């Protein structure tokens, strides 16, 4: 006996929940049987935060926990203070996101939640089949965010992990400016990698302080905590307590993730929604899903990621991976040589060719030029 659904969502994290939300808001779930599958079941607790920049209001504007109109960048020789209008830098916590989307989905009478890992996922062009434990299931259409486990040495494209750990801290003194976020602070020992901290203040005494590392060698929890402790002691001199922590890993690669296989649609990181050169996912994912909902069910109309932006990402990643430049030089110099809104638009993949030429003219042209040509072939 095969259990059949009209739509299956395999993975109930950011990508899976966002997909259901966008499809539901567009009216595409009406009258359809839907199953949402995840081995962790219904997500409710705080397990991560998503930060991004955008112009104007986004689809989850009411969930924005805090926003900043100014950002800073630092390395050992430069300290930049940037007004980023018309953009705002925003943060959404998973707690509010899960609560909001789950409440919306709870109004759907045809949605079934299954706490299980979907395995043996296959598409024959007519339907998608998968197993939930011993149960055989099928769906007319499926969206999967199940990860594709890549090994850096087995692919020709550049690959770096962005692994990170953050503390939500409360200090005993007013030391933070809640109007300004530290986007990238490289004033921490690099150890041959690209390591930076970022600080997102919510009040003069509360902030998220996080360390991110671009490398394929991960640290222990104690290793990340040591970096954060030293960073706080050097730059935010106040006694503090840690309210809670978060951490994770984001693969950064220009590996050509397929968008679909028949009626199996890949979403989230699995569908290439992560911007390879930065690791930012939230904004690109919502943009991807907005287009998906608009073209539903004709997924042939889904626009691919512009090839020239893939080439830019491959160039940036290769430079970092090969150590030709480190992040402290590369990213801070980009902001130092350009209006911040141009850099942010570029990192969102929303610049014109003319803007890109202007931006590239401010980089280390021999390094960027030779690497760009290398990645073409």
UniProtKB/TrEMBL annotation:
Alphabetized SUPFAM superfamilies for the sequence: FAD/NAD(P)-binding domain
Pfam families per record: Lycopene_cycl
Record protein name field: Lycopene beta-cyclase
């Amino acid at each position: 006996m095969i259990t059949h659904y009209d739509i299956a969502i395999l993975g109930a994290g950011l990508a899976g929940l966002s997909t259901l939300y966008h499809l539901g808001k567009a009216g595409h779930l009406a009258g359809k049987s839907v199953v949402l599958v995840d081995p962790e079941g219904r997500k409710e607790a705080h397990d991560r935060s998503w930060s991004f920049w955008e112009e104007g209001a986004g689809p989850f504007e009411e969930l924005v926990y805090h926003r900043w109109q100014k950002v800073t960048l630092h390395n050992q020789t430069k300290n930049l203070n940037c007004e980023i209008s018309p953009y705002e830098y925003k943060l959404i916590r998973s707690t509010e996101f899960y609560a909001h989307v789950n409440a919306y989905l709870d109004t759907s009478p045809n949605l079934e939640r299954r706490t299980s890992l979907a395995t043996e996922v296959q598409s024959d062009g007519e339907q998608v089949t998968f197993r939930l434990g011993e149960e055989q299931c099928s769906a007319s259409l499926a969206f999967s965010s199940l990860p594709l486990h890549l090994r850096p040495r087995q692919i020709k494209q550049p690959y770096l992990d962005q692994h990170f750990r953050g503390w939500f801290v409360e200090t005993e003194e007013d030391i933070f400016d809640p109007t300004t976020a530290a986007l990238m602070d490289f004033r921490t020992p690099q150890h041959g990698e690209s390591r930076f901290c970022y600080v997102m203040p919510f009040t003069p005494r509360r902030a998220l302080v996080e360390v991110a590392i671009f490398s394929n060698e991960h640290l222990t929890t104690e290793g990340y905590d040591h970096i954060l402790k030293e960073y706080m002691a050097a730059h935010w001199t106040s006694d503090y307590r840690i309210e809670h922590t978060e951490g994770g890993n984001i693969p950064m690669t220009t590996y050509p993730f397929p968008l679909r296989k028949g009626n199996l649609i890949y979403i989230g990181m699995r569908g290439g929604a992560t911007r390879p050169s930065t690791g930012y996912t939230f904004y690109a994912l919502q943009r991807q899903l907005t287009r998906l909902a608009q073209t539903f069910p004709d997924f042939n109309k889904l626009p691919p990621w512009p090839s020239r932006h893939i080439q830019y990402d491959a160039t940036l990643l290769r430079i970092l991976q090969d150590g030709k430049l480190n992040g402290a030089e590369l990213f801070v110099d980009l902001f130092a040589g350009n209006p911040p809104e141009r850099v942010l638009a570029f990192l969102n993949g929303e610049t014109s060719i003319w803007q890109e030429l202007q931006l590239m003219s401010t980089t280390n042209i021999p390094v960027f030029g030779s690497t760009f040509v290398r990645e073409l072939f």
